Amino acid sequence: MKMIKTDKLVFEYAKRDEEGNVIGKSRAIDEVSLDIEPGQFIAILGHNGSGKSTLAKHMNALLVPSDGTMWVDGMDTKEDEHLWDVRQSAGMVFQNPDNQIIGTVVEEDVGFGPENLGVPTEEIWQRVEDSLKAVGMIEYRHHSPNKLSGGQKQRVAIAGVMAMRPKCIVLDEPTAMLDPNGRKEVLRSVMELRKREHITVILITHYMEEVVDADHVFVMDHGHVVMQGTPREIFSQVDTLKHYRLDVPQVTILADELRKRGLDIPAGVLKKEELVEILCRLN
Amino acid sequence: MIRDITIGQYYPADSRIHKLDPRVKIVCTLLYLISLFTFKSILGYVLATVFLFGCIKLSKVPFKFIVRGLKPIVILLLITVGFNLFLTPGGETLVHVGFIKITEYGLSTAVYMAIRLIYLIMGSSLMTLTTTPNSLTDGLEKLLNPLNKLHVPVHEISMMMSIALRFIPILLEETDKIMKAQIARGADMESGNLIQKAKAMIPILVPLFVSAFRRANDLAMAMEARCYRGGDGRTKMKPLIYKSTDHVAYLITILYVVAAFVVGRYVPFKLWIF
Predict the structure, then answer these.
(1) Long-range contacts of range A272-275, CB-CB < 8 Å, 24 or more positions apart?
(2) Chain A contacts to B (CB-CB under 8 A)
(3) At B85, phi and psi to the nearest 5?
(4) Contact predicate B241/B139, CB 8 Å
(5) Is beta strand A41-46 parallel, antiparallel or unpaired with respect to A200-205?
(6) Strand partners, B175
(7) Rounded distance, CA A190 to CA A173, Å?
């Protein structure tokens, strides 16, 4: 069974003028069809307003499609009876770390999800401990979230989702409000989780550096999926990426420019080390 | 200036009072406050003093923290004492200078009133100093649970309270940020009279409200994403369960209330006018 499958998904919203009269409809997502296998690391790239966050909210049934269908773990998100199962299967981490922490103590926040699911008390404690250990925040369990850094708060939010034992975790620009260190910290936690728990990770971002390890990348623009493939396939099309207003990593640009000047460098170089090796081999 | 505001001034310590169930602390504090108004003779106040200071000692909260709670009521205290002292008739006149007249009865009610008010504040500060705001709301939720049958949304209210508590520091920080941003744009917060100062608050309040609504929206979405659907079918990570020490605490408080009531009302004892 596919972890997430969409079939011609459409999400429309009404456009309004100053007085609130409907003046037309706008499609945030326009006939998107995609398949995501269990255990994959998927990245969805796109500029602001490309519809990537709207798509993410569909995966958690926070939004339901206007047309077309979305299945999460085989369940149709439009059907009310599946609502809570969908939300439990696909946990979601949002952009703003402050606005998604509910508890006044770290461990209470991580326990919030399991509490809602009606998990027995002893098991909640077990899950909280496991999840906090998994993101490396166990020593902060008694701290107030207000005293943590942005990266730490996002790791707590990830632990809060993990404690619900989801099959899939959707991260909606989890690093957009963090400094470079926090960004690295959060991504490292996600990668470790993925290795250990074998869950599906869907990372929505506009930082291209974050997607180099993904199994599959989707690029969105104006509600459409405009490119898809492995990171290497995507990154080899530097000019197309620039056209979609995405920041291509510096190494990739450099390699591309060198290739255009006649150096024998393959397209789609992703990492600094890779380029260094290629350049050394040239002589 | 904004940073000085503290709500729920919890004093962290490892004491028997801290470890009590919040329900015990709420109920016992209430009982204690009521008991203060039942005495007629000074013996009752002696018992109340012993009980209160015993609890303070057990709680390991420094005495000055508890006294600090009295600051805001100093004015109220002075007014109450003044009215009682000068305006209560009855008994022999002790002082009579011009229009000022202090009677025996006036002096004793004034002193009793002062003690009552002071102990009232000290007793309730002891509760808030030894209980985290969150466990207070938990305790209240559990205590008010019977109201659910009257369709009072007890769970929702306590959830709102604990979320409000969590967001106080965040919104304070935000206020600070907006204030600095407006000052940087030339806003003048300091000069002018009261009305001008109040007007100067508008450019701070408007963005603050906008951001608070945005946060509320985000938070609601995050809660739904984590399967929050009200209090039904929810389990608790830290359920409130009475332990033996909690029963002992109830017992001691009830003993105190009964003893204070009987001694304070029915044991004949008079020390001068009290």
Answers:
(1) A275/A251
(2) 60, 62, 84, 87-88, 91-92, 94, 96, 98-105, 107-108, 111-121, 124-125, 128, 145-146, 160-161, 164
(3) -65, -45
(4) no
(5) parallel
(6) none
(7) 13
Residues B195 and B131 both lie in one domain: no
pLDDT in tens, A74-90: 999 999 898 999 999 99
Q: Exposed/middle/buried for A128, CB within 10 Å: 0-12, 13-18, 19+?
A: buried
Pairing of strands A216-221, A200-205: unpaired
Q: How far is CA B222 from CA A82, A184, B30, B219, B270, in A?
A: 18, 23, 37, 5, 64
Encode pLDDT of A212-254 as tens digits: 889 999 999 998 999 999 988 888 888 888 888 888 888 888 8
Q: How far is B227 from chain A (nearest CA, A)?
A: 6
B211 vs A: CB within 8 A: no
pLDDT at A270: 82
What tokens were used for B269? 């004892």
Instruction: Label residue B232 exposed, middle or buried (CB < 10 Å: 0-12, 13-18, 19+).
Output: exposed
Q: What is the C-alpha to C-alpha distance for residues A156 and A140, in angstroms, rounded to an integer?
A: 9
State which residues form the domain around B157: 153-225
Q: Whole-angstrom Cα distance, residue A84 to residue B226? A: 9
B2 to chain A, minimum CA–CA distance in Å? Answer: 16
State how far the Cα of A111 lies from the Cα of A105, in Å rounded to an integer. 10
In residues, how long is chain B? Answer: 274
Nearest by Cα to B174 from B213, B220, B212: B212
Pairing of strands A200-205, A4-16: unpaired
CA distances to B139, B142, B148, B158 from B145, rounded to whole Å, are 10, 5, 6, 11
Indicate whether B3 pLDDT > 90: no
Residues B23 and B112 in one domain: yes
State the amino acid at position A24 in one-letter form.
G
Report the pLDDT value the prediction gives residue B8, as an integer from 0 to 100: 52
B234 located within any domain = no
pTM higher than 0.90: no
Does B184 share its domain with B140?
A: no
Instruction: Enumerate domains of chain A plus CATH numbers.
Output: 4-248 (3.40.50.300)
Do the Cβ atoms of B35 and B48 come closer than 8 Å?
yes
Cα–Cα distance list, A57 to A13, A77, A166, B15 (Å):
14, 11, 16, 46
Please indicate, yes or no, if residue B221 is contained in any of the structural domains.
yes
Structure tokens at A129: 């401990």
SS3 label, residue A55: helix
Residues of chain A contacting B215 with CB distance shorter than 8 Å: 96, 98-99
> CB distance from B153 to chain A under 8 Å?
no
Amino acid at A160: G
Bridge partner list, A44? A204, A218
Place of tokens 């004015």: B75
Task: Quote the pLDDT of residue B209.
Answer: 94
